[in-house]
Amino acid sequence: xxxxxxxxxxxxxxxxxxxxxxxxxxxxxxxxxxxxxxxxxxxxxxxxxxxxxxxxxxxxxxxxxxxxxxxxxxxxx
Length: 77
Prior knowledge:
- This protein is mainly alpha-helical.
- The protein has a single domain (about 1-75), classed as Homing endonucleases (Endonuclease I-creI).
- It has helices at about 20-30, 40-55, 60-70; strands at about 1-5, 10-15.
- Strands 1-2 form a two-stranded antiparallel sheet.
- Helix 1 (about 20-30) packs antiparallel against helix 2.
- The chain is globular.
- The model has no long low-confidence stretch (mean pLDDT about 90).
């Protein structure tokens, strides 16, 4: 779901299902790339989404891989 912020200069995407992430968010930002440091966070988010889609998060190794990716995101860079 997309909600426009007050003033209309920006908005927020809210994701409730993994399928929304794969079908809406990732394609949108692939088409309209993020510029700057946040681009690396988007790449990491995409990797985690693919791991979750393949059910890797249900294994110990997959969960560790996701946690490692998460540790490097946002302020962890």
